[in-house]
Automatic annotation (TrEMBL):
InterPro entries: Kinase-like_dom_sf, Pkinase_fungal. This is Fungal-type protein kinase domain-containing protein. Signal peptide: none annotated. It comes from Suillus discolor. It holds the Pfam family Pkinase_fungal. It comes from the Eukaryota. Gene3D superfamilies: Transferase(Phosphotransferase) domain 1. Residues 60-274 form the Fungal-type protein kinase domain.
Amino acid sequence: MVLLHTLQRFELHDWGRNKDFLPIEVEGKLCHEFKIKDEKLGEVDLLLHTSHDERVTHYGLQGRATNVVPVTSEALTKKYGKFEDGMVAKIFWGEASRTSEPEILKKVEEIAKRHATVQDHIPELLWHHTFTNPAAAAIREALGVPEPTTGSRVLYILVFRKLLPITQLHGKELFDVWRQCISCHLTLWKEGVHHRDVSPGNLMWYWKDGKQIGVLNDYDLSSLADDSGPRGNERTGTVPFLALDLLTEEGQRGEVKHLYRHDLESFMWCIAWISLRYKNGDLLPRGLRPLDEWATLGATTCGRDKLYFQGRMKKLPVPSYIDSSLWAFLVDCLGMLNRHTFNRWAADTPTNCKESDSDIDAFLQSFKNTESWAELSKLLPEPS
């Protein structure tokens, strides 16, 4: 009764609702308007098209509740010009103790200036703002909860140039953009930026000079190798694409160190997921696409399903909508993962062993050495 009595008296901001976003109707559709003074740009105006068909939401009882919506802004258009595909705003509740995405992107941009594999392959952050009034922490403090700020979240809004999803691609174009993202990820990892959340939703692309440019996106769960501060409580990664080591009970308790090979394994699961569930860039109808259950299973159960799938991939019939060269590549990728898993098991290799740059290079090279990787690479244009 006390709880119900308390909830009854909550104001909007007590529920985590930010009142700075004002509802407004534009051409018969609900949008939200946000304006704020900025030291460099003066007044920044954002019109968030929250009813747009391309809005992406991630709601749940826990997590960041990330929303990505198309956005228009006179101030940002005046500064950057008009982008052909427009802009998007990413709004999410990030853990206050974790290094913020804008801070990580600043480091990423510095690396891009020195490495061609990163330059043009990272998201273009146009503007950002942090709301520093976490409601949950204030409630826990008022209730006398010990360490009330532990796990508290703050609201971020980031505006980016809009990118296109990798799921639109198939065949050699899919392989090309995916491979570009791997090269970007490798350089960032060696330079101390560990992505740790490789999933199809974070692999994007755009056109530049008639070429499809892959972009490794979404750094809000990334970490910096030289950051000795707290990493937050949130487990990083999206279950269907996590490496098998991280889907074990030990991995879910945070007892397995997240290594480069775990992220590269996620890349392999990503391309298998896209290839099996999309036909010429379109999602197959429910009932005709495999692996749906992976998105709803618990971590350890999903890990067992993935291990079984990985072991029998070679015996599956080739789907009619997948190019034979790409199917051979998928079989080789999952077969190579199987081989590495067995070798680590046979050698009784600790899951928390350190990785050197040579270890990282050798792990990636083992996939590049497959005949199917070489065959797909021949179909791509020579880099200019």
